[in-house]
Amino acid sequence: MKLTTGCLLRLFLTLMVIALVCEGKSPSTTNKAKHCELGTHTCHQDAICLSTRKSFRCKCKPGYNGDGKVCKDDDECHDENGGCAQNCINTPGNYTCACHDGFILAPDGKDCIDKNECFENKGGCSHQCVNSLGSFECKCNSGYSLISSGKQCEFGEWCRIMHGCDHNCRTSSTSNKVECFCRTGYFLHSDGKRCVRSCELGNGGCQHKCNTTADGPVCSCAARYLLNLDGKTCRASCSVNNGGCERKCMDSINGPVCQCPEGFKLHQDGRSCIDVDECEKKMDGCSHMCENIKGSFECVCPPGYKVSSDYKTCVDIDECVMKSTCDHKCENLPGSFKCHCKPGYQLYGVTHCADINECSVQNGGCVYNCTNTEGSYKCSCKEGLKLHPNKHDCIDMRQCTTVVQQPNSVLTCVPVGPKEQHCVMTCEENAFLINDAGYLNSTSISFRCGPSTNYEWTNMPTGKLPQCSRNILAPSLTKKARFVLIRDSCSVEPVEAEMIKKNLTDIFNYDQKYKCNNSCQINFVEFSCGSRRKKFQQMAKRSGKKLVTTEFELQINPREISYNCDVDCRSKKTRKKFNKILKKARQSIKGQKFSIRLYNKEYKPMKKSFKPEKAVEELCVNGTQLINKTCIGCSYGTYYDIQTKKCTLCPWGTYQDKEAQFSCIECPNWQPGSGQEGATTLEQCNDLCEPGTYSTSGRKPCLLCSVGTYQPKYGRISCRPCGMGLRTKSTGSTGFQDCLVKVTCKAGHYYNISTQTCSSCPRGFYQPRTGQDFCYTCPGKTMTDFEGSTLAEDCKDRRCGQHMGDYYGILESPNYPGNYPVNVECVWKIKPQKQRRILIIIPQIQLADNDKCEDKIIMRKTKNPYSQNSYETCESRERPIAFTAKSKKLWIQFKSTGNKTAQGFSIPFVAYNEEYESLVEDIVRDSRLYSTSQHQQIFKDRQLLTVLLEVIATPYSYLKYFNVSQSMFPPSFINLLKPKVRRFFQS
């Protein structure tokens, strides 16, 4: 489970905690005040009242400014003319833009564009009307000229031809000379002939601002607009309505240029953006499937896989990481997993294990009495009989069981009286006797069995012979010690650490004063800066150097035991030698005769700095285990388990004919039930009598079962009769199916000997094969839906699943993740503590298809069908959903009918602090939360959901997951949630 440094989240509600941690805020525990609803607030009439988690706050309406208690009209026209291109008109709480004559307001409500006056009655012109920016001009046909009104035309062009006047001419009132004059809106140029347009007429031909000069109008633009090359018109920059662009806008010489973010391309209108289908480009690098989403794409994995940190490659989901996946053992498979049960247990509901009642099927194979136990069973015999070594058959109490010769030994047995035997077991050369209690310090042992011992073998407390082992050692001894070095720097590089480790190893093994003779080894060397000794600190301070405390573990390995020095002797000698070595090391360091060479430079540990620990640990090499202070190699028929560090019996179907091995050898052509557990030879793989045969010992050579009898098991001393005088086809029959009956019963049925008819297996039983006289019992408390079941998978747990905690839990349909039973009803009640609300997360639901909507789940306030309903469905749902309960408590009911079944559901819930109610609802109501496959996968990941429940319920638990990698979450998921949390804590 993984997240980041900084303030990014683990799951969507961990953001709550991050915001608290990073911004130094703590949530209130009071309910929202209702001043706004009741009208008891003190906000200004031009303000809005906003409820907060603690009380309320006032906010002036748009167009007003102030603290909410006092609000004044905001004169928008004061700042950059309100963004208007020409005129701005302020109004209470608002403003509007207006244009000069000759212009009309643009669609954006701020810019002004030219009005074409010529559209209406030619602008009043008698001949021609020519539109211009902000105005228009009348023109006359050839041979005519405009009169002073500027609209009517008269015949002749005398003023222009004779005097060169632009517009009109007249006789001066002072000099009787003819002079030029201009129409309204123009002024006469200094040359006395040309007429120049002023700003009074059509804003001087300027789109925005006009400034009159001696040479005519000079145009400029409103704030955030740019003057075009014509010197008159204006174009909006990107700061005005984003340049008309839907997304990104860039200013250029030719005006705003629209751009689109990654995953989009520009539409042909040059303004809007359309999605790019990345999946058209050969799946865009996805290892499996590609799914296009708006503005991007995502790689989708098949069930049982998830996308890796590169968001493209699918990797297997290791379901076994969660210890709760399987009741017993979990085996991860590519894209899936498989659960296994311990011996004596049976799998049901895909992941669950329950005890097998072996005694319910043919008495567990016991000849007399069978007693079921958890995970196993026991056979027992009636008085006067005792169990055969095969643990199923019964033999006369007055009979000694046969002892079998063990490896590395010679077994001699002789009769010493009526029904009395005496055996001596002698180990071969260099082998010593061992049993479960450990080393026996002997090479031979005697046994006796007969009337004098009540037919039990002496010197066999566990019922089995001791073994002779050649792999017996005294344990190695280890002790930690430390000394202090003084160096220029206290940092030690890894290569230097290895050099010091090798140097120490060489000192103890090859320096004659230690006499270690290559039996010493250094297991590790660790370094730390400084020392606790003030004396050493002062010495280092005076020299300006650094102290390095060096800790190491020294191990001494013992010599082999012999007839002259047994284990106890060798252990004492090794311990004595170990103490001498440590004493020599102390003296050598104290006398400054101990030095470590590093890069051709010698370092001497500081005097009196050598400190060995008091504790001495005894160790055994792998392949041996410490029993009663002796290292004993795993014996024949066992192997050394690296994980448990113990010797374990070879399971059925394997054997081991050597000592101190790390695995067992598979039996060739092994059949389940044959051989024995802890087999020591290949012959023991198949030395038991096979089904259809028997012998007095249960071992080969064997006899065939006679006609009318059969034997389905290995290693038995008799055969079972068919019963009721029934016969078999021949000798050597292996099961009841070989008995000649009137009718052969099909799967799901059994032959009733007393009635000689077939009967259905009752509920709670099943039979997958034909021609049987029994049915298997469902394991544990499981039950079949109907009579006549043929599969073990038909056994279902009818108990309603639930895992309840103080703040969170999980509700599961019976038998989940296996199919739920028919005709079952579950009712759960969730009643959280005060000031907590309920959040429900439904990763998916699988219900049986039924037109009548009979299998359903209902969530409402109470049992009353008219109470407030939070959720109800009778349909399967693959898409996850999260929602908050409409009521503070929930009554939940699931019902199935007697028809089809399905997988059902596993629904987690959490009771969160109601302070976060608005935030939680804001998040779970956003459809984008489940819009992509990667988002949906988050809610289907059991590992993430476990963390989700814990963090939502107890936000301080977030600290446990603070350093988990953010790479587990797609960036889109993080970006969706961050602003929601930020807004919540800023309100």
Automatic annotation (TrEMBL):
List the cysteine pairs that form cystine.
C320-C330
Q: Does the keyword Calcium apply?
A: yes
UniProt keyword annotation of Glycoprotein present? yes
Record's GO cellular component terms? cell surface; extracellular space
Identify the residues that the record assigns to the EGF-like domain, covering every copy: 32-72, 114-154, 275-315, 316-354
Q: A biological process (GO) annotation for this entry?
A: signal transduction
Q: Which GO terms describe its molecular function?
A: calcium ion binding
Q: Which keywords appear in this protein's UniProt record, sorted alphabetically? A: Calcium, Disulfide bond, EGF-like domain, Glycoprotein, Repeat, Secreted, Signal
Q: Which Pfam families match?
A: cEGF, CUB, EGF_3, EGF_CA, Ephrin_rec_like, FXa_inhibition, hEGF
Superkingdom of this protein's organism: Eukaryota
- Signal sequence coordinates: 1-24
Record localization? Secreted
Q: Which residues form the CUB domain?
A: 800-912
Q: What is this protein called?
A: Signal peptide, CUB and EGF-like domain-containing protein 1 isoform X1
Q: What is the lineage of its organism?
A: Eukaryota, Metazoa, Spiralia, Lophotrochozoa, Mollusca
